[in-house]
């Protein structure tokens, strides 16, 4: 009886115990790098966790059965895993996440000159990986930026197709272009130097909108673009990307990596672009698109040193032959008055590097040298120029208890000489322009509390021509929680104008540049409020919203006057002030079914108020609103990806040559849209193709002409009064001169493209 009672009690106790529960755990990584803060969720359940600093995760108390796990993190493609777990099982599941073209990439350096996580940076930095640019393949980084919200490549000439980069509605000279943090593309080369950077060697592009002069000095007034090249040790052994279009364009990007010596890796990149097809669809007897023949060679060395100290060295050479003009023009007419052509030969080399000193403190020396030689003719106007820039910078990085200090000294030397009176004395002898710009800066990022950071910065430059220029800076970051971040930035910027290196001849090729006075440096005062919100869904999908509001006030702004004289561009300091203000937002959504949406919009208001006129003046070539998008979807079972990208721009004011000019003074709303299909079913090869400019949109369809008086490019039949004003006549009823500056969009219609990528790791 006692045995029977004992068995009954034992059975009751056992039956009351819960079923044995299990655990799934593992390591989350990307390549060889462990990933922290990855969201791990179980479908149709509230259960989940996040990975720790070592990339480890674990979910316990699971009952036996089938589960669907979703792994998601900003900057990486979401991953879905189906598991079956038994009773009392410890299941190990390691996951390697693939990097995505997300705006919230892991590390940035541009905002503070330090490598920090994107979300930890006190300064808002937008980051675009190579995956983003592959959605719409282009032959140069200049063209690739067309789908970045708030950034617009602006063509400045209908014939030579030179251009610059606008950020938040401000003209190209307000944008600073860096390569690996070095100011290599500026001044004269800002017009031509963005071409020829091999896309296969670009790791990412970082963009800061708003003044950054307190760290980077002159030119970083409207914003800066930092092109980060790949590290040789992280690059594939070989990468190749070749595509062609139905218009006859051919672009080739090649990359090679090998270990040159025992402790050094070398990466070599070659870019070749060729377009020789003369097209005149608008029947004005001039080429619609500039013909180009360009080659660029880039080489980067990375040396392995003790204690992982940095030592990198890189060099690039770029040669380009571009021309546009009369369809029957040949090089034999170069510089003459028989047939009009704009022919530009550009030869450019640059070297850059950084070296971490062998001391206990983190002290780095960075340097760059470049030489840009240009031989151009615009009709019978000869323009030869040479620009050399030497730059050196020493920085000291020190972390204290609640302070993250960065101090540095910099020196920049600019030499500029050309064949115009800009670099000549009154007696006609040559007088090359030489400017020394030493500077010192300090930055302190203070951790006020766990979720609050304050960044204070100051830079002091001494321009050999204009004297002392101080630029303070302030940034505040408040992490409301893991999914909400608020940033406030304020600071000043300055720009010392090298007018002839920015605008001379390259802008229009037909107008005379006039300096009405001695030009003083421009100053800007900027405030920027940025808010980032992340949303993780139970399904494993996620969304991020990046919104900003900004206001910039300019003093001594230099605005080109196109209207006073149709044969001239007159420059003087503004007697008043200028303003750039607006709102922008980026939306990034990634779904577990393979759908990804990137969309952005900006509302812009840019104007000047001149005391002489007492009214707001809106600049030319400035849109009031803009939008960009990219929609991607991958059909996994077919290994087929689909990308639909595009942009849309609001109307812009356009420069007319006279009151009788029959062309519209306001551009229409216009949009460039593209579609691409990518097949990735082969191990090392990726095939892609599609259509660019789906709507076949080109400017000028509703205008009588784009290029004024293309039939008389040397103004032989133009009559003027004693003051130089153009008169209306029987052969010139609209009182115009030859001018190709009426341009606001690419003049290239619909075209197909086909390409191949080969990667050997």
Features:
761 residues; mainly beta; Immunoglobulin-like; Maltoporin, Chain A; 22-stranded antiparallel barrel
Please report which band the strand proportion falls in: under 5%, 5-15%, 15-25%, 25-35%, 35-45% or over 45%.
Answer: over 45%
Overall pLDDT level: 84
Q: Count structural domains.
A: 2
CATH top level of the largest domain? Mainly Beta
Unreliable runs, pLDDT <50, ≥5 residues?
1-19, 504-509
Per DSSP E runs of 2 or more residues, the count of β-strands stands at 45
What's the Cα radius of gyration? 29 Å
- What do we call the CATH topology of the largest domain? Maltoporin, Chain A
CATH architecture of the largest domain: Beta Barrel
Count of alpha/pi helices? 6
Terminus-to-terminus distance? 76 Å
What structural class should be given to the helix and strand makeup? mainly beta
- Characterize the biggest β-sheet: 22 strands, antiparallel, barrel
CATH superfamily label of the largest domain: TonB-dependent receptor, beta-barrel domain
Q: What's the helical proportion of residues?
A: under 10%
Principal-axis shape equals: globular
Notes on the structure:
The chain is mainly beta and 761 residues long. It has 6 helices and 45 strands. The strands form 8 sheets. It has a 22-stranded antiparallel beta barrel. The longest helix is centred in the N-terminal third of the chain and has 15 residues. The chain is globular.
